[in-house]
Design goal:
The complex is a heterodimer of chains A (605) and B (316). Chain A is mostly helical. Chain A has helices spanning 26-54, 60-65, 79-110, 113-127, 131-149, 158-182, 186-194, 199-228, 231-234, 249-255, 262-267, 270-273, 278-302, 325-357, 364-368, 380-411, 414-429, 432-446, 453-477, 481-489, 494-522, 526-531, 553-561, 567-598, and strands spanning 69-70, 75-76, 371-372, 376-377. Chain A contains 24 helices and four strands. In chain A, the strands form two sheets. Chain A has a two-stranded antiparallel ribbon with strand order 1-2. A two-stranded antiparallel sheet of chain A has the order 3-4. In chain A, helix 8 packs antiparallel against helix 13. Chain B is α/β, with parallel strands linked by helices and 316 residues long. The radius of gyration of chain B is 26 Å and the shape is globular. Chain B contains 13 helices and eleven strands. In chain B, the strands form two sheets. In chain B, strands 1, 2, 3, 4, 6, 7, 8, 9 and 11 form a nine-stranded mixed sheet that branches. The chains are: A mainly alpha (605), B alpha/beta (316). At the A-B interface, helix 1, helix 5, helix 12 and helix 18 of A face helix 2, helix 3, strand 2, helix 4 and strand 7 of B.
Chain lengths: 605, 316
């Protein structure tokens, strides 16, 4: 028997002597690029507006307190526009919030899951319908209705704009509120029911206190969207300057008359007429800053995390009589279900109008033939252009958003993460008309690109990147800690951990976010009007990257909608809208399917 | 965009620094990656600028401006496509938008439905605007047929002023039906509006918009026509070419002169206006070809199609 001597294993190699393969330094470059891009967009926007403001004498006091706007006399007062924006948003909220909240409660608390799930999906579909489609409905449906009901000649009014916006933001409010409600754990409901409370009381005392902040966030996100919307309002508001009611009684009266909002002013011709310096341009940029500030405030406030869980304060005082509880429960329940009917009817109505008026879209020839003249032929060029823009935007946005999202989720310290999160959210909520104007001034004017494919795509990138970043970050945060710990205990560097663990884990959520963002970008109109499309002569396939304009569906619909007296143009507009809705719906359905498959965190646009 | 270039150079410097430091100490890794990121973004921007320089060759001719002139030029561009010329037509901001974009060098040809004014030249001191007239057009004061049939066939300058300043609020004040007036004015910078202002105020500064509830702003001609048609009691300035074949709208005669072909050709009708293509310096290459085509016999045939007058008809 030979005795085996134990041999000591060779000493472990010095870490410096043979470094791990693939140190993956590029990872850091990549994630920081994403984060820097986000900060860069904000800086460029504020820089562009700031340079404009600095480039001319600007009387802030006049801008904020004077009602009349008259460049000929160098009177630049923005108060009437601020008033218009405020009134339009208030009308939209007053209509959309009660309906949205009640519908969300009905969806999450009253309906069986089998029914709720498809409905929830339809609501998300509605939330992604491009605003130009709402604008079209505004011109062809809301204007005539207001004209006949409120006795407004023509129907252009603040009220019409408010109604269009209400229809537009209801789905956003419902979707975000449903998320907040379904995040409330079931045990609270069960405990409340076991105390013998009726359903209404359960919702009121156990569910709502926990979901309240999320539901409020939905409202503020909707508000941000309403504040920043340009085109849908532009088509129905009348764009009359200097309309300010002189008395409180005049407020109601002003509702049914033409007005002007901040966004419609910026979407009009004046940014192009104002040159690039001087008091006129400075005042236009001042309006832009005011708008950006308002929207940023609404978005940041809306997407604050729960600062502290609101302790449910016992409100003393009024105690309900015990007699009517059953009846009350039934009444409230049916009211909530009725409120759910409203978005449902809206959805069906919209789809109905789209499908009947836009029936030309069901003819394949319409998809594959090019447009002829002002309102003939098909939309093949527009489809190609829209897809080109969407794909280019997607290719640029994916790495940037992915990187920023990972940094947001993994690496940043608490404070840095909060700052980056805020920046991301603000960029995501930026009114796209401002992106379009900045693109127009910087890309098309200063860099001399002309309206082009790339300029349009670049302007759309900030629309998509935040959505990608936020979905990615949400997914990273939901990673099981074991995964992280075991990866780090194997001695992986942070960069290697991101490369081999985080990226494989999060990419489905990232792709979902990308598709959601692209669905939004596909319907953007205002930025493209300024940077990518022209009235005539854009080739179906652009001949150059930065020299050649493209065609696109949203701007095509916008042009057609200007001539809504012509039945041919109207039919063409509906058909194009139908095609656009189908394209966004496909993007969205793929996104939702992916999400359901991988259970990423829900994000609604 | 010299700034991009600068920042990219800085980034290059940073990067080489970073590369050196990353070999020595990992503590500077953070800085390196930030520098790398800056470099990446900067190089993206410069790459785009390079692509721009490369793509400068096959650029389409860019024309932009008046929605009145745009349909004619679009038709001409369509016809010239066969000859391999690429022309794009945009209508952002109307005539004034086109002129200011031309002055800023963003486009090659401005479409204008008003003559270049001294103010335009003063605003763009470096530009040498050369206008070529391609035809002529009449701006009508357009009202609905319902009002015209009820007795409003003619308006004096005084009455038109009253309408647009919000002093005349009901059509029965000018011999029409008992119906409230709704004014659609063109947004600033539109050629149509300047023609109207010239007729009403003869070069004096027009007053600010009226403080009336029956007043809204419209942009291009299509939108104007559409809103005039859909609003009872509406009045607005619009090129008479745009109401051809629209039986709901009527152009009233002004001071007793109807916007007929003869009256416009002889400039008797007060709101006659020339239609221009404007270039910076003498037109050359593609812009030359476009303008030559539009003043040629074939190109002139496009004007009556849109309700405008040819150069021949106005005796030019």
């Amino acid at each position: 028997m030979a005795v085996k001597t134990l041999e000591r294993p060779p000493a472990a190699p010095e870490p410096e002597a043979s470094p791990r393969p693939y140190r993956s330094r590029w990872i850091w470059a990549w994630v920081f690029t994403g984060a820097l891009f986000m900060a860069g967009v904000l800086l460029v926007l504020i820089g562009y507006l700031g340079v404009g403001v600095a480039g001319g004498e600007i009387d802030w006091h006049e801008l904020l307190t004077e009602a009349s706007w008259n460049p000929v006399d160098s009177v630049f007062g923005g108060l009437a526009m601020i008033y218009g924006s405020a009134v339009v948003c208030l009308v939209a909220l007053a209509l959309a919030v009660p309906v949205g909240w009640a519908a969300a409660i009905a969806l999450s608390e009253y309906l069986p899951p089998r029914l709720a799930r498809p409905l929830r999906m339809s609501v998300e579909l509605l939330a992604a319908v491009p605003s130009i489609v709402y604008g079209l409905i505004g011109i062809l449906v809301v204007r005539p209705v207001i004209a006949s009901l409120a006795d407004v000649p023509g129907g252009d009014s603040l009220l019409a704009a408010g109604i269009v916006l209400a229809v537009m933001i209801t789905p956003t409010i419902v979707a975000v509120s449903v998320d907040a409600l379904s995040a409330v754990p079931d045990r609270y409901r069960e405990a409340a029911f076991s105390l013998g409370l009726t359903r209404r009381e359960v919702v009121r005392s156990a569910v709502l206190p926990l979901a309240r902040s999320g539901m409020r966030a939905g409202v503020l996100l909707g508000l941000a969207r309403a504040l920043g919307e340009a085109i849908a309002v532009f088509l129905v508001v009348g764009r009359a300057d200097g309309r300010l009611p002189s008395s409180l009684g005049g407020v109601l009266d002003s509702l049914v008359h033409p007005g002007q909002t901040l966004t419609t002013k910026l979407a009009g011709p004046e940014p192009v007429l104002a040159g690039t310096s001087g008091p006129y341009f400075a005042s236009i940029c001042g309006l832009g800053l005011v708008l950006l500030g308002l929207v940023a405030a609404a978005t940041v406030w809306g997407s604050r995390g729960k600062t502290r869980s609101e302790s449910v304060r016992r409100r003393g005082g009024h105690r309900q009589a015990a007699r009517m509880r059953g009846e009350l429960d039934r009444v409230v329940g049916s009211m909530r279900l009725a409120a759910l009917l409203l978005p449902g009817v809206l959805l069906l109505g919209m789809l109905g109008i789209l499908a009947t008026r836009g029936s030309v879209a069901f003819n394949p020839a319409f998809w594959f033939s090019s447009a002829v003249g002002a309102a003939g032929g098909g939309v093949s060029g527009q489809i190609v252009g829209t897809l080109l823009l969407v794909v280019t935007t997607g290719l640029i946005s994916l790495p940037l958003g992915f990187g920023a999202g990972i940094l947001l989720g993994v690496h940043a310290s608490k404070r840095a993460a909060r700052v980056l999160q805020t920046v991301t959210v603000v960029v995501g909520g930026t009114p796209t008309i401002l992106l379009g104007l900045a693109g127009f001034v910087i890309l098309c004017t200063a860099m001399g690109w002309g309206r082009s494919w790339l300029a349009g795509a670049i302007v759309l990138v900030p629309v998509v990147v935040p959505v990608v970043a936020l979905t990615t970050a949400g997914r990273v945060r939901s990673m099981p800690t074991e995964t992280t710990e075991s990866a780090l205990s194997l001695g992986l560097t942070r960069a290697q951990y991101i490369r081999s663990v985080v990226v494989p884990y999060t990419w489905p959520a990232t792709i979902t976010g990308l598709l959601l963002g692209l669905a939004r970008a596909a319907g953007e109109t205002a930025p493209l009007i300024f940077t990518a499309t022209v009235f005539f002569g854009a080739p179906a396939l652009p001949g150059g990257i930065v020299a050649s304009p493209v065609q696109s569906l949203p701007t095509h619909i916008f042009t057609l909608s200007q001539d809504s007296g012509d039945p041919q143009a109207v039919a063409q507009a509906w058909g194009s809208a139908m095609v656009l809705v189908l394209i966004t719906a496909v993007l969205l359905c793929v996104a939702v399917a992916l999400r359901n498959r991988f259970e990423g965190e829900r994000w609604t646009t | 965009m010299s700034r991009t270039a600068e920042s990219s150079e800085q980034a290059q410097d940073l990067m080489s620094d970073g590369a050196r430091s990353s070999r020595s100490a990992t503590g500077k890794g953070r800085l390196t990656s930030v520098a790398l990121a800056v470099a990446l973004l900067a190089s993206l921007a410069t790459a785009c600028a390079d692509a721009d320089a490369a793509a400068g060759g096959g650029k389409a001719l860019q024309a932009s401006g008046s929605t009145t002139v745009a349909p004619v030029v679009a038709d001409a561009a369509e016809a010239l496509k066969a000859q391999g010329l690429n022309i794009t037509v945009a209508t952002q901001g109307g005539s004034a938008g086109g002129i200011s974009q031309l002055g800023a060098g963003q486009i090659d040809v401005a479409l204008s439905s008003k003559p270049i004014g001294d103010k335009d030249r003063a605003d763009n001191p470096k530009a040498d605007f050369v206008s070529t007239q391609i035809g002529s057009d009449a701006v009508g004061v357009i009202i609905s047929k319902q009002v015209a049939d009820a007795g409003v066939k003619n308006l004096t300058a005084e009455q038109v002023r009253g309408l647009f300043e919000g002093k005349i609020t009901n059509w029965n004040q000018v011999g029409g039906p008992n119906l409230e007036v709704f004014v659609y004015d063109k947004e600033p910078g539109r050629g149509t509006r300047e023609v109207l202002d010239k007729y009403l105020y003869h070069g004096e500064k027009p007053p600010p918009p009226p403080n009336s509830d029956h007043f809204a702003i419209v942009g291009g001609n299509l939108e104007t026509r559409n809103k005039l048609e859909s609003t009872p009691g509406a009045v607005g300035p619009l090129s008479t070419g745009f109401i051809d074949g629209r039986d709901k709208l009527v152009a009233v005669s002004l001071d007793g002169i109807a916007p007929t072909m003869e009256n416009v050709a002889s400039s008797k009708y007060p709101m006659t206006r020339p239609l221009f293509l404007v270039t910076n310096g003498q037109p050359k290459d593609t812009s030359r070809k476009l303008i030559d085509y539009l003043v040629s016999e074939k190109g002139q045939e496009l004007l009556p199609k849109h309700g405008y007058l040819t150069l021949k008809q106005i005796g030019k």
